[in-house]
Design a protein that fits this description.
Layout lengths: L2 H15 L2 H6 L5 E3 L2 E4 L11 E4 L4 E4 L5 E2 L1 H9 L3 H12 L12 H18 L6 H8 L4 H6 L3 E3 L3 H7 L5 H6 L3 E2 L2 E2 L4 E7 L5 E8 L7 E3 L12 E2 L1 H11 L2 E4 L2 H9 L5 E4 L6 H8 L4 E5 L4 H15 L4 E4 L7 H7 L2 H9 L2 E2 H10 L7 H20 L6 H12 L3 H14 L4 H19 L2 H11 L4 H5 L10 H10 L4 H7 L2 H11 L7 H30 L3 H20 L4
Parallel strand pairs: 13-14, 13-15, 15-16
Antiparallel strand pairs: 1-2, 2-3, 3-4, 4-5, 6-9, 7-8, 9-10, 10-11, 12-14, 16-17
Helix pairs in contact: 1-4, 3-4, 5-8, 11-14, 16-17, 16-18, 17-18, 17-19, 18-19, 21-23, 21-25, 21-26, 26-27
Length: 574
């Protein structure tokens, strides 16, 4: 058993040895509620108990704010300490020894956190009559909401105030994008702190309130702040997304805040204008169902189509919410929750949305306009086939037929003929083919990656992979992955429990859009497994040979080793 497995086993022993009811009742008052227990939630204000402790699963859950976890999570959140500190506390309580080193807080993230507090203090000390509070109140943001979402205001002095009272250096502020050319990067702006998907405060967005340009100014890209990976509020909403099994994706910070406060807590916002493949990977840990609610203008339409393009290749179920207001923030302020819930239920499926999204760009009553429109549709049809989304092709064609008032079979015939004439640059095709071939070789001849690739991309091979003799391979990502698969864990559970090396490999493979011939990859895998099985047997025979004295017996063992090596070589082994 490796160190990682030993640590996981010790953590589980600590959790099993303690009653979560005893742990939580040492902090708050709990009451029996059937076979479980209830309490007023310690993580948000409430008058009626919505916080429950479940004895069978040793977990807690709040139906009001979504707080959820085990005893370790509770102590961590209640005492505002790190996971390691909470674990150590419960280890002492359980009497089970555990050796852990506390990870020092990263200076860049600590500086961001302290500066965020300073920005928030500045905002809270401003009078209601100030321009910033007038702006926020127009957005239906009161002081309690500003505190909850950590909003702040920059006067251009907060960063240096934090540095003057601490051990931070100006160089660190420069590296964090908080200080530039002898002045603070943000000044006279509303500050929106941005936590990454794990909850670390990695950067800021700052909105102009005096009409100055740009309207939004973001922290420059740093090691910790990467817009293409972070989803705003995801650290706060991912449990709700798991519970509802779908995510609502919006374009702006206030769109996300408004939807969240209206009760749609399974919401997150992109920091740019489109969902990237990295975003898709993060969301996959919680759900494979997405409803997009981008702005209703032309930019929002383009962002929606680009997001569909990125998500479709990853097998997501995608829907698009249609509404008349400018954005979700305006939608929430203009309508009741029930109306928005119905609107979400009636969202377009992505393959029905696409034909409608393009039709306004072309005069399809005109032959030339219709031809251009169908060419656009043929591009999407080709993508769907490349992404192996065959199940949606009939509906896609039927939607186009309804719009153009032509029969399904005629539309399908036109689209398939146009696919043959799509113009792509020859050089680009050759480069893509070469890249595709090189990537296929990388996957096929990398033992660990080929197993994970097959499991992620081809459902038909999930059961076949379980049949492989994982005992024959050494510790590493492949063995760890197959162990999880054989335990019946899904991809979300693997990402939650897997080693850093395994999770990074899954992330890299997930971002690959190419589909290779699975039979070739699987056949190469089977041969590798057979070679490894022979090698394990050969090593075992060699150990026996060392301890064997009888010459006749030694000769038999030696002959068996030779036969195994011969069979191994026939499989391509050395």
């Amino acid at each position: 058993m490796n160190n990682y497995d030993q640590l996981k086993e010790t953590v589980q022993k600590i959790k099993d040895s303690l009653s979560i009811v005893d742990v939580i009742s040492s902090y708050i008052s709990v009451k029996k509620a059937g076979k479980n227990y209830s309490a007023l939630c310690p993580f948000h204000p409430e008058d009626t108990p919505s916080f429950y402790v479940f004895t069978e699963t040793n977990t807690y859950h709040c139906f009001g704010c979504g707080a959820h976890g085990d005893a370790i999570n509770f102590v961590k959140e209640y005492e505002k300490i790190s996971y390691v500190q909470a674990l150590k506390k419960l280890a002492t309580r359980s009497g089970i020894p555990i050796e852990l080193e506390e990870r020092p807080e990263i200076p860049e993230l600590r500086l961001n956190r302290e500066v965020a507090v300073a920005y928030n203090d500045t905002l809270m000390n401003l009078p209601d009559s100030s321009e910033i509070w007038k702006y926020l109140k127009n957005r239906s943001i009161d002081r309690q909401a500003a505190k909850e979402f950590e909003l702040g205001f920059s006067t251009g002095k907060e960063v240096m105030q934090v540095i003057s009272k601490s051990d931070f250096k100006v160089e660190l502020a420069i590296r964090n994008g908080l200080y530039n050319q002898n002045r603070e990067f943000f000044s006279n702006r509303l500050i929106i702190p941005i936590r990454d998907n794990n909850g670390d405060l990695s950067g800021f967005s700052a909105r102009s309130i005096d009409g100055s340009s740009p309207k939004y100014l973001n922290t420059p890209e740093t090691q910790y702040f990467k817009k293409g990976k972070i989803l705003y509020l995801y650290h706060k909403t991912k449990n709700y997304i798991k519970q509802n099994d779908f995510a609502i994706i919006v374009e702006g910070y206030f769109d996300a805040i408004s939807m969240y406060r209206a009760g749609f807590k399974n919401v997150s916002a992109v920091l740019g204008s489109v969902l990237t493949k990295e975003h898709a990977f993060e969301l996959m840990k919680s759900t494979n169902k997405i409803i997009t609610m981008f702005d209703s203008d032309e930019a929002g339409r383009k962002a929606t189509l680009s997001s569909i393009d990125n998500l479709c290749a990853k097998g997501f179920q995608i829907a698009v919410a249609k509404y008349d207001e400018k954005d979700p923030d305006e939608l929430v302020r203009a309508n009741q929750t029930k109306y928005i819930a119905e609107l979400l239920k009636k969202s377009y499926k992505f393959h029905e949305y696409i034909p409608h999204a393009y039709v306004s760009r072309y005069d399809i009553q005109n032959d030339f306009g219709l031809e251009e429109y169908l060419r656009e549709m043929s591009v999407w049809y080709k993508k769907f086939t490349e992404f192996k989304r065959f199940e949606i092709l009939d509906t896609f064609v039927s939607t186009i037929a309804q719009i153009t008032k032509k029969r399904d079979e005629i539309i399908e015939e036109i689209i398939k003929s146009k696919i043959q004439t799509l113009n792509f640059k020859v050089d680009s095709i050759i480069q893509n083919q070469q890249k595709h071939q090189n990537l296929e070789k990388e996957i096929r001849y990398d033992f660990d990656r080929s197993i994970i690739y097959l499991w992620l991309k081809y459902d038909d091979y999930k059961e076949k992979l379980k049949e492989l003799n994982s005992e024959a391979i050494e510790e590493g990502p492949a063995k760890e992955f197959l162990r999880f698969v054989n335990e019946g864990k899904n991809i979300t559970q693997i990402l939650e429990n897997g080693s850093v090396q395994l999770c990074e490999m899954i992330s890299q493979i997930y971002l690959i859009d190419s589909f290779f011939e699975p039979e070739k990859i699987y056949d190469a895998l089977k041969m590798t497994f057979e070679r490894k099985t022979f090698q394990k047997h050969i090593d075992s025979l060699k150990n026996i040979l060392k301890d064997t004295v009888d010459e006749e017996e030694r000769a038999k063992i030696a002959l068996e080793i030779i036969n195994c090596i011969s069979k191994q070589k026939s499989l391509g082994g050395k």
